[in-house]
Specification:
Strand order of the largest sheet: 6-7-8-3-9-10
Low-confidence stretches: none
Order of helices and strands: EEEHEEHEHHHEHEHEEHEHEEHEH
Helix content: 25-40%
Mean pLDDT: 91
CATH topology of the largest domain: Rossmann fold
Number of domains: 2
CATH architecture of the largest domain: 3-Layer(aba) Sandwich
CATH class of the largest domain: Alpha Beta
CATH superfamily of the largest domain: P-loop containing nucleotide triphosphate hydrolases
Length: about 325
């Protein structure tokens, strides 16, 4: 696969805080590359550097063979950004919004008109061209946001949480459109808090924490990093005043338990895959006066891998 984006030894500091710490990775041409990380892990800073929205201290970033520092203006023209926050002008209609953003990349005249029509058609908003954002649903605004980011036909598209707050139908439309963009030749960097989306559309996935990659590969490659583990989920009933931290600490110290956490009324244990007998865990939980309402044992999935590697849930 031809390399389209190359990031080498990237360092970005905000005063004494290191947001990106010697980060290196590459993205292939026509690849959908998932970027996951807890809040504050360095995702947004990395994307802002790639799009040249912020400078950096050390390292290099090459996009389609262009240095984003030395060839900033040329590099910007091949990059499209779809931000998490809706970036639309409420006093402009859909078509006018798309034209405005496309014009920033040098499009004008017939080329601009054609690009706006094509972008609106692509996101399914051709019949809403004269509608203003304030009259649109959340899903329609998200789709218009995408149209504004892709109208200039960028080769690299960065999508930051493009499905936040949308209905199921709009989400499916957006995910389908991302796959189509790849088929048309685009390279995509995709971030989301919805693991099923990342599993569905991404060719490779990187997990970033504290400004560094802790893992990178296909879904199965990531799962294989913790393949000697499995997840035991025990349903129970936990009072709001129950000392959950004490219980987690005790469960974490039991044999074959690698990590323990509680999600509402479910105790989740990451345990050695070879462990077949769960009696010790059950007895320990019952000893604390908690009922056992159900038990399931599952193989690790992407969310389990994420928590195992970062120690935090993706929120």
């Amino acid at each position: 696969m031809k390399e389209f984006l190359s990031v080498k030894n990237l360092v970005k500091n905000y005063g004494d805080f290191c947001a990106v710490d010697d980060l290196s990775f590459s993205v292939g041409e026509r690849e959908i590359f998932g970027l996951l990380g807890p809040n504050g892990a360095g995702k947004s800073t990395t994307m802002n550097v790639i799009t040249s929205l912020c400078d950096f201290g050390k390292g290099s970033v090459m996009v389609d063979g262009m240095d984003i520092v030395k060839d900033k203006e040329k590099a910007r023209r091949v990059i499209g950004m779809v931000p998490q926050e809706i970036a639309l002008y409420p006093f402009l209609n859909a078509e006018e919004n798309v034209k405005f953003f496309a014009s920033l990349y040098g499009l004008k005249g017939k080329e601009l008109n054609s690009a706006a029509r094509e972008a609106l058609e692509f996101v399914g908003l051709s019949d809403r061209a004269k509608m203003k954002p304030k009259k649109m649903s959340g899903g329609m605004k998200r789709r218009l946001n995408i149209a504004c980011g892709i109208a200039h036909h960028p080769k690299l598209i960065i999508m930051d949480e493009p499905t936040v707050g949308v209905d199921a139908q709009s989400r499916e439309h957006i995910l389908g459109s991302i796959k189509t963009l790849r088929e048309r030749g685009a390279t995509v960097i995709y971030t989301s808090h919805y693991m099923n989306e990342v599993e569905d559309i991404c060719d490779r996935i990187a997990i970033i924490d504290h400004g560094r990659f802790v893992a990178c590969g296909t879904e199965q490659e990531l799962i294989s990093t913790v393949s000697d583990s499995k997840v035991l989920k025990i349903s129970t009933e936990i009072r709001s005043d129950y000392p959950v931290n004490e219980l987690i600490a005790e469960l974490s110290g039991l044999p074959d338990v690698r990590k323990a956490r509680i999600d509402e009324n479910e105790i989740i244990l990451e345990i050695n895959a070879s462990r077949k007998d769960f009696t010790l865990f059950i007895e320990h939980i019952q000893k604390h006066g908690l009922p056992i309402c159900g038990i399931t044992s599952e193989s690790m999935n992407l969310e389990d891998v994420f928590i195992a590697l970062t120690g935090r849930e993706l929120r």
